[in-house]
Amino acid sequence: MYTRLAQRTLSDLLEQFPAVVLLGPRQAGKTTLALAEKKRNPNALYLDLELPSAQRQLDDPEAFLLAHANQLVILDEVQRLPDLFNVLRGVIDLRRRNGEASRQFLLLGSASGVLLQQTSESLAGRVAQLELTPFQAREVLQGDATANAQNALWVRGGFPLSWMAANNAQSLVWREVFITTYLEKDIPALGPRIPATTLRRLWTMLAHNQGELLDQSKLASALAISGQTVGRYIDLLCDLMLVRRLTAWSGNAGKRLVRTPKVYVRDSGIVHALLGLQDLDAVLSHPVAGASWEGFVIEQLITAAPHAQASFYRTSHGAEVDLVLEFRSGKTWVIEIKRSSAPTLSKGFYFAAADVGAVRKLLVAPVDQPFPMKDGVEVMNPVMAANMVSGQT
After folding, report:
1. CATH topology of domain 137-390
2. Which of 22, 57, 60 is nearest to 38 (CA)?
């Protein structure tokens, strides 16, 4: 069993706030993490709101929740009952007046937009938010961050049941079922009436175009729908934490900057499943290999530095860097990502680093050991880079 890096953060937030929202895509491990927290709180109550029996217990939510005072109440898939949030506010305030300042509610959900809107409107000042991603390299490869181990995680992705499958074939089957279930069951259950075939085609096109600038009109033309509809579908996939829009750097560099965001399917294993790529050889022989590796690394680093402002930098004259991290301390790091064990850098990288005022320059590649390059560039693998950025504030 792997120890999740979010476990300690979750415990700390529960000690500080009356309610904590744990966000993450389905099957990322939210329930497992919550049940581990329940073991630390023997009197805690767990309800899975996908079950009709659990929903019936909340027919009178105020009475039910007040009846379980002095308990940590864990509500899984809480977006199923959006009307519950106003009740939670009143219960939290009442329990606060009775001397219970923390550890009241742990709310789990897989639709970030719905939950963030509800919590910001109803539970402002009463709730903390924490995102749980699928397994990260730092969690499963810490003692074995060799190139082979990195490749295995890259190919399968981080969803626990995909990563822990007996072989690559079973892992791919799990991911294919996961995709189908999302399209045919989970998304319709949230309310949007979207043709599953159209959304699958869009998701697959995003995988083919991994890491490219978003061109909604091109996607709309291929799908025979409007650009506005494409934007709405991508919003939904972002809301479900399956797709990431990486914004362009917006500082004042006195240059003609690209402003269009890049789009990534967040889990590399899902990228490969959408494209039918089962093993490392299939991935490496596909044109998406370099972009898929880039997306894989970007997820590792953004997750390791959740409070940093993440973007990419590109000018019309060719200065470019894959990832810019701006930390709260005011420091800016630039990261270039290469799918080569003997990587090189273009002049555009150095121009970009100077334009954004970078104090540290990293090149992340599938290498076993770190080594320096000229002009202060440090070459390292994703685990090393994630460990490094996680220590920044």
Report:
1. Arc Repressor Mutant, subunit A (1.10.10)
2. 22
